[in-house]
Structures are given as structure tokens and as C-alpha cells.
Amino acid sequence: xxxxxxxxxxTAGYFYHTARLSKxxxxxxxxxxxxxxxxxxCLFEEQPRWLIYHELVFTTKEFMRQVIEIDxxxxxxxxxxxxxxxxxxxxxxxKMPRKQGKAKEELG
Length: 108
Known about the structure:
Blueprint: H1 3-14, E1 18-22, E2 25-28, E3 34-37, E4 50-58, E5 62-69, H2 72-78, H3 104-107
InterPro entries: DEAD-box_helicase_OB_fold (IPR011709)
Pfam families: OB_NTP_bind
Protein name: DEAD-box helicase OB fold domain-containing protein
């Protein structure tokens, strides 16, 4: 099993814990709740466009813990009953700070 298959499997199990990068941090897709990557996360400085998280922990902010980067197309693949394509439209045309919201493959 390769890395992508594992990530798609995690997405299938936690599809309802999805967050998308926005101007003020991340927002959960369904409820538009502002959340942040926990400072101890290996993805803290990378800021990928889409994340799945295991849990939210509230300290000074609402932090996502145990996060992985995902491709938004996986959500329609594993949870078409929960997400509509309109909710998952790629906002890559919107301006973001350099390197933010880019997949690792895009960064080279």
C-alpha cells in the first residue's frame, strides 16, 4: 500500500474533519469554524490548502491535532453523500502568501 492509498483511507474515515486554508487560518468545510494547525505539528509551517484532522483541542485557539494533507477530490470520491462539488471548489485563483496552500508536489 502506498502513501496516497493510506491518505485516501484516512480521508474516508475522517471526511467530516476537513479544513481548508483561508486568509485567517483554516476553516472547517461544513461549519466554517476557524481552526489552526497545532504548533507541534510537522505541517505547522507548511500550510497546505486542505487538511484532515483527528481532533480539535482548545487552548488559546481551536487547534487541529494529528493532521494530514489531502487532495479535495478525495472527499467527493469517499464521501459523495456528505460533500457537494460546489463546497469543494478550488480557490487556488485567490491570492495567498507565497508557498501557502500549495501541495508538496507543486513546490518542487
